[in-house]
Amino acid sequence: MIAVITGDIINSQHADTEVWITRLKNLLENWGSSPLAWEIYRGDEFQFKCSIDEVFWRFLAIKSLIRSQENLDVRIAIGIGEENFSSEKITESNGTAYVNSGRLLNDLKSDGHTVSIKTSSESVDRDLNILLKWSSKDFDSWTVATAEIIHEMIMNQDITQEDLAKKFAISQSSVSQRLKRANYELIVETNQYFRKKISEL
């Protein structure tokens, strides 16, 4: 089983495309090469695949990266399933993971939510989607400053609050307050729960 994330940038027409697309490409290149593992297409849509263990953390890395740019957000559809056909281009690959993710993104565009998951299990989908709806109340309201801190924590889990304070030229207590406001410890717990539920499929 693999995880496929299909997403699109919200409000992309009101932002400097070169800035967000360069940052998104740099992020995705950490996880694989294009167009085999990821691709950006139709201007503001993208798709990439990863292991099911990593998918929640990858989703949050993308979310925090995009939210750290003023006025931008991202819609993300997570599909878990098989890869029956692997092409040289991810957008031409096929299997239930791709179908689940692609169809789900269309549903998200009409229902107003910013993240959802589809697996082979209705009960797992129900549990995880309730969790995602609740947690998105937080994620969707991150300020630029909060998103920047969360992104650094996700991409470098060994980073200390002192390092973050130096990087952002703020006090360590400010770093601590931002992490508390973002419920970072709860995010880590949510990731562990997510991995456990998906491993049961």
UniProtKB/TrEMBL annotation:
Signal peptide: none annotated. GO terms for molecular function: DNA binding. It comes from the Bacteria. This is MarR family transcriptional regulator. InterPro entries: Lambda_DNA-bd_dom_sf, SatD.
